C-alpha cells in the first residue's frame, strides 16, 4: 500500500504537552507528527481529561453514527481538535463522569489508582475498536494501540463481526499490565470465549496488556534489546512465554527524540550552542548553578539525574555512593519524585551537602532542559529501561550519559573504551551489574576522561553528531505498517 494512502488511529492515554506522566506522552506527540510528515494520515484518540479540554479548541464530531452509551457507562461524545504546533488531528472522548476528575489520568490527587480504571480505559479501548470497525467517517487501516490502557482494542476487534482494521500494540513498559478482577469481563462486554489461558485470563484475573499481546496482529516495543529481554523471566513480568511465542511478530524500534530537544534552538535554554562551539554549554552550566544555588567552580564536573525515584530507575544504587561521588569533586543536580523514603533521604543529603548537591522534588520541564544542557554527565543506572529518552537528550546536548547495559540504553550508548575511542564511536559510559560500587567505579572512570579536555570534547562531539531524530524511527514504523497492510 502506498504510504500516502495509509490511515492510522493512534490510541493513547496521554500526549505531550497536554497530559504527561512519562515517556509515552512524548512518543504520542512526536511519532504521529513525524508520520504525518511522511504522508501517513495518522490521528490521535485520547480521553478528554480536563487539562485537554482546557488546552484544545474541541468541537463535536459531525458523524452519522451515534456512539453511546459505551459499555453502559455515563454519557459521552466524541470531540475533534488539533495537537498544538502540529497538523495532527485529535479525537477526544468527552465523558466527564469517567475522565473529568481532579488528579492525574490514572490516579487521584493522593496518588491512589482510580477504582474504575478498568472501565475508564475499557471505554477508551472500545472506542478505538469502533474506529477499526469503520463506524466513523475516519476509517483507519490500522489501529495503533499503546500500553495496557488501550490494549483491549485488539480483543474487541478480534471478536467484532465487522472488523476491518489491522492492530498493532506498542509496549512501552511491560511491568505495567492493567490487571483487574475477572468479574469485570461482562461489564467490559467481552465474550466468555475470550477468558482462558490463551486469551485474557491471567492467574484468575484479566490482563489488558495480555489481551493486546494475544490479539494484535503485531507487537512492537521501543528498542531491539528490550524486545529480546521481555522474552526472559527477569523482564517479562509473567508474560515472557507469551511474548516468546510471538517472537516472529515482535519488533523493537528505537524511539527518537523530538526536534524541540536541540541545544541549537531550545527555547527553554538561556544560551544556545552546537558541536563546533560549546561555549554556550559552559554558560548554561553557570546559569544552572546560579538557579540552584550550587558553588561556582568552573573546573568541577556537574552530574545531572532526572527521573522517577523508583527501584526500576536504580536510584537505590546511587544513594549509598552519592557522598563518595561528591567527595570526588563532582556536583550533582537531581530532579524527580517517587518513593517517599528516597525523597526524604535525598532532602537530608541536600541539606548536608549544600552547594554541592541540589535536589528538586517534582517535575519542571524547563529545569529538565536546563539540567540536560548544563550538566557534563548524566546518570541513568536503570535496572531496566525499555528505550529511555534522557540518554538521547543527553548525547544531543553534549552531556555524556552513564548508563547500565539494559534495553534501549544498551542500544544507544557506546562505552568509552580504547577501541571505541580509536573507532570514533564512543558516546558515554556503560556498566553491567546492579552494584553501587560498580556504579561508583564507572563515575570515577568518567571523571578521569573529564580531566582530559581534548579527549572529553572529542567524545562530546561524537555524541552530539549522532542522529536520534524521529525521522528514522518513523520510517521504521512506516515499513512495519506497510508490511502489516500488504
Keywords:
single chain; 486 residues; alpha/beta; Rossmann fold; 2 domains; nine-stranded mixed beta sheet; six-stranded parallel beta sheet; 20 helices; 18 strands; 37% helix
What's the SSE blueprint?
Elements: E1 7-11, H1 23-37, E2 41-47, H2 50-55, E3 59-60, E4 77-82, E5 89-94, H3 96-99, H4 117-132, E6 142-146, H5 152-159, E7 166-171, E8 179-181, E9 201-202, E10 205-207, H6 208-215, E11 218-221, H7 224-229, H8 233-236, H9 240-245, E12 250-252, H10 279-292, E13 302-306, H11 315-318, H12 322-327, E14 331-336, H13 340-352, E15 357-361, H14 365-374, E16 377-380, H15 390-396, E17 400-404, H16 407-412, H17 418-423, E18 429-431, H18 436-450, H19 453-464, H20 470-485
Parallel strand pairs: 1-2, 1-6, 2-5, 6-7, 7-11, 11-12, 13-14, 13-16, 14-15, 16-17, 17-18
Antiparallel strand pairs: 3-4, 4-5, 8-10, 9-10
Helix pairs in contact: 1-20, 4-5, 5-6, 10-14
